[in-house]
Design brief:
4 domains, 19 strands, single chain, 16 helices, globular, alpha/beta, Aminopeptidase
Amino acid sequence: MIRLLILAVLSVVFLSACSDVGNLKDLVTPFEISDSLETATYPEAISWWRSLEKESPYVCVKEFGETDAGLPLHIVFINTSRNFNHESIKNSGKTLWLINNGIHPGEPDGIDASMLYAREILSRENFESEFNDLVIMIIPIYNVGGSLNRNCCSRANQNGPESYGFRGNARNLDLNRDFSKADSENARSFIKLFSKWNPDVYLETHVSNGADYPYTMTYLLSHPDKLTPPLNTYLSETISESLKSKMKGKGDEMIPYVNVFGTTPDSGFASFYDTPRYSTGFTALHNSIGLLTETHMLKPFKQRVVSTLNFLNSLGETLVEEGSHVKEARAAANMYLSKQQEFTIDWEIDDSQVDLLDFKGYEAFYDTSEVTGELQLYYDRSKQWEKQIPYLAHLKAKTIVSAPSYYLVPSSWDQVVQRLELNAVEMKLIGQDTIIEFSAYQITDFESSSSPYESHYYHSNVEVEKSSVKREIRANSYYLISTNQLKRRLLVEMLEPKGPDSYFNWNFYDEILQQKEWFSSYVFDPEASEMIKDPEILKALEVFVSKDSTNRNNSRAKLAFLYKQSSHYEGDRHMIYPVYRIE
């Protein structure tokens, strides 16, 4: 009884700290004050949301983590129940919709549209009844450091606003390439938030680059072919169709993201392949529905903000109608995932399946550039066309792996352990010396980028050979991680080295790629002479030499080959991927 009284008092205190009834119509946004020419700065945005919190009992603003800029991230909750406690919301059965704005602060449309949307729905007389089963969570500005790096001109292709933030964050990282590797404080804070709240639907707001065309709004989905059934068909056949219909009904027809650069869309284009470094690829690992808006950069800023507002309304309406079905589809996907054995960890465009997309475009032409003297692409907006164009909407499996029963992850690579913990992966440290039989990968080939990409020399085209090993695992040196958990897909895609955004490909295990001990030729040569008396070793050396003519007269290469066949070579560590599989 005492515990219930304490909880009741705390609930009243908590609610009163986040609410007061007031007049929302007086809350004019920075966007409106500037006559639609400016986007809110970070201080202006947080101040406005705090003001909304004071005026509405349905709103609560919280800090939820750190950023590389040294300033906090904020999350805004909108809930008809006037309750903002995690357990209460989790147990309410309501649909959770997370909106993330300002990941690229130079693309600020969602920052301002979210303010307009929140004020609009909270002002409705039927707000409580309409949004009774939906909790909206809004990140006002995710890339705080980029937002503070205010400028007028870094978006050369973009038509307004008059000033805006910068794409890179305080460490010059692109945060929409950081969801799997989590280099930034922003990403680590986000992943903790996402793991805790487990939103059903995630929306991220952007502005596009690329071709010119009449549409203001284009959109991306977590690629349906990559989603766990039945989320794949539910997203493509229900959610997507509802959004297109509602946007068209608002006089704001939209089209899938126009994935065209350096050419024109009239010959068709392919859908975007969102690996887990991107938000919609990351959300797919958690069986959450991911969506992303891309307003057209050449449209006026006001027009883009209005279009983003239209999309927010359309998605809100869809989730009011479909909320229970969204949760059912996610539950079914989680059940499917728990039994899934084979996982596609890399995909490619399926050019054998070609859809036809109704598309409106501008006539393109080429003329000689006065600057380069070469032909330059131009669009004639006075000449609009409408036709069906080829659309490569489907992916096909490129790399398939089976899920092991367990992974063994070394505790010494703490950066990986920390990222697994952020994602709420269940792990158990093996506390005593234990002999375990497992499978180990040898990295037999890989390529690395020739220049840094997002602070890494990223690996790709990884090849491995798997072998069985029985070895003693020292106490406290490895975590035992069962794949029989909700994070099953995340574990496979992050820990299998051939996954495009695996921890291996993002350089977290590069230490194993360097050989630590070598030899002096004059010391090892006599031993090598004894080794080749073994016919099998001699044959292997001859094959090695025959494969590459440069080895024929390369004494060091021959000795190095034999060294790797000797007991001196650290063959249990060099090129051996230290994450093991218990099949």
